[in-house]
Amino acid sequence: xxxxxxxxxxxxxxxxxxxxxxxxxSFAVAxxxxxxxxxxxxxxxxxxxxxxxxxxxxxxxxxxxDPRTRGLEEGEELSEAERARRERVRERAGGITAYATDRxxxxxxxxxxxxxxxxxxxxxWVEELTVPGTVDDPRLDPTGRWVAYVVEGAxxxxxxxxxxxxxxxxxxxxxxxxxxxxxxxxxxxxxRGHWWSPDGRHLAATRVDERRxxxxxxxxxTDPAAPPRAVRYPQAGTEDADVRLFVxxxxxxxxxxxxxxxxxxxxxxxxxxxxxxxLTLLVQTRDQRRVRLLEADPERGATSVLAELEDPAWFxxxxxxxxxxxxxxxxxxxxxxxxxxxxxxxxxxxxxPPGLQVREVxxxxxxxxxxxxxxxxxxxxxxxxxxxGAERLTHEPGVHTGAEGGxxxxxxxxxxxxxxxxxxxxxxxxxxxxxxxxxxxxxxxPAPTFLRLGHRELRAALLLPGGREPDRPLPVVLxxxxxxxxxxxxxxxxxxxxxxxxxxxxxxxxVLVVDGRGTDGRGPAWHRAIHRDFTVALEDQVEGLxxxxxxxxxxxxxxxxIRGWSxxxxxxxxxxxxxxxxxxxxxxxxxxxxxxxxxxxxxxxYLGHPAVDPEPYERCSIVADAPRLxxxxxxxxxxxxxxxxxxxxxxxxxxxxEAGRFPELVLIPSATHLTRDAAVTENLLRVQVDFLRRHLLxx
Length: 699
Fold this sequence. Notes:
By secondary structure, this protein is an alpha+beta fold. The chain has a domain at 449-697: Alpha/Beta hydrolase fold, catalytic domain (Rossmann fold, 3-Layer(aba) Sandwich). Strands 37-38-40-39-41-42-43-44 form an eight-stranded mixed β-sheet. Strands 1, 2, 3, 4 and 5 form a five-stranded mixed β-sheet that branches. Strands 14, 15, 16, 19 and 20 form a five-stranded antiparallel β-sheet that branches. 52% of the residues are buried.
């Protein structure tokens, strides 16, 4: 029996991993324009991702490698490092989830279940590499002759002709090479730990020593015989990992340490070794107010300062920058406080106009391909060139990303016209091919109305039952994320971004999504408004709600709920604890309840060091607010969460119980911060809507 949209949507979300399966992604374009490489599974409910190529001339797609042809399924055993990588990037699928190419995009290397493969896309062969163990993060050198990879924390290189060499390794399990430490991957968005030189003769690699990082434990209470898993977690105010950088001669194995003032600048935020070079580093102070751009000499290990940049609050690390133009000039994204704009700079000079918020650098060669916003609800592709300056490449309202090479531009566009993203290949303004999607069509049809609310012109989206204005008052559910972070905005001109909110609205709610201060796309001052005070995020939710109610007479302010996950879960808990006059019920998923229990790089960026200034931590943490609870609340947390540990929810639940307040509590033994299990995903949606219906609709 088929289910209607209200009943069928949670199961469809679970089967399709949030409609991500079957979508093409991770594009690379050959410099000669002969092929486009991408990842995609074979159906909208197929969790095994395959490697594909597209011939732009003919439009023909070819599956290069399906893991199932080698007996590799989604559930194959993964290394701890690979599990951590997938958690950091919120990877929902299995199979081939990442790959790396040579400069010509002719050869590709990837790992499936820890087994490395290399494919020659021109000759059409795929070969498994013989290696001594389970492989993490294999990467080809630019010439396509060598592969670097990590096995159990040791850094290896392998000549594709057959020889393997261990470049570096340590006996201590808390020291590893060539992989990012937790805060680099989770908070700095540096997802790698080794980088090839342009000529393929040298390899730069990190050595991470976590011995001074505090040990936390993850256990499975459903199996009392299983020992807890020890995890090195850099709690706010405690020690970080010690990170050093070395350069290896891959033929001789000789190494040179790259030296900088690690005491003053302990965070290695970016490493770039673009052609034409040189090796370039971006390092950051512990308080994150200063960064240095360094040029490194790989022969001697010395570094020289190219620039030092600072910000009185924090310096926002740019997405995939610094980079080098083909002529060697340095590309960065820098906050211009006078213009209140994140601007693209070339050798320190701004090259994008005030008001255009640069969000991400995608590629650099003769020109720069980047993503930017004139309005935070849209993200467009732009190109800067020395001849033409900055020009916009996409025009339909939406969220666009892409890749380029060989005169071709791959454009993936999430818009309101199409519920899920569509991908085209362009040569100039001409479409030459499309990359197909086999993702399932959602059973829900989102119909957001976009609003600007209050004196801050808060960007908001309103979703109503059936997409139509009601003839009676409706209870309101706020559905924010609300926190800082790149591309964390919920209010965007993309139908797919509003699917769950529309499904919730179709149960009889007016669902209001508000992006407040601290969210991305509105400039440095908007970002910095949350400095030392996360509670301004709650102020903006209240302002947005009341401004919407003044404009729309059908919002029933006597029945207001709020739901959220992660920072959104924190915000939902904050709302129901501190503003019970506004909020009447809250769904609180995986919340941070005590900011002293979150990690160094994220928390100290916004709230400072707890030993130096504890007051922001007292103001923003919520466990002490437990006796104030007078509204129903549903707490949800996964016991395997290694990002926001379940201790956050358990401490709040204990404080509520001791104060005579009895929340509803759902604990999920197998769930991490991102749920992948189909039954868990489906029932997480069902339990939330059941709670909100009971407390706001009385059904």
